[in-house]
């Protein structure tokens, strides 16, 4: 069973690159998240840098790739890692059925035995302090 642990929304800003901004709450990481586009250096290099806001600043804590779904459309494959984590956390973000610019971040336990869903998280609207 997949657990909802956050969301992302396409955010367009005049004169700056489009980013995906939202909230995440998983494995001791809680707060704002921003996927910032990056130049691809090869076929398998990440499409985005994952930035997470902690203690008032933005920190790079992973990478994200666009992946194609078999049924059409795209989703994000996201890796989050940092010194406070014992091991990397792998999540996916799928487009919302009702709003195609919103993505639901989900995590699925790789082995048997899961926990309940995280509470619904609503992203803040302050775009002045984004990392780009």
Short description:
The protein has 132 residues and is mainly β. Helices cover 0% and strands 51% of the residues.
Structural commentary:
The protein has strands at residues 2-11, 19-26, 29-37, 48-54, 57-68, 74-80, 89-95, 102-108. The chain is built from no helices and eight strands. Helix content is 0%, strand content 51%. Mean pLDDT is 85; it is low at 113-125. It is globular, with a radius of gyration of 14 Å. By secondary structure, it is mainly beta. The chain has one domain. The chain has an eight-stranded antiparallel beta barrel with strand order 1-2-3-4-5-6-7-8.
Strand content: over 45%
Mean pLDDT: 85
Structural category is mainly beta
Radius of gyration computed on alpha carbons: 14 Å
Largest sheet: 8 strands, antiparallel, barrel
Distance between the termini: 35 Å
Helix content: under 10%
SSE string: EEEEEEEE
Task: Furnish the topology, listing elements before pairings.
Layout: E1 2-11, E2 19-26, E3 29-37, E4 48-54, E5 57-68, E6 74-80, E7 89-95, E8 102-108
List keywords for this structure.
mainly beta, 132 residues, eight-stranded antiparallel beta barrel, 0% helix
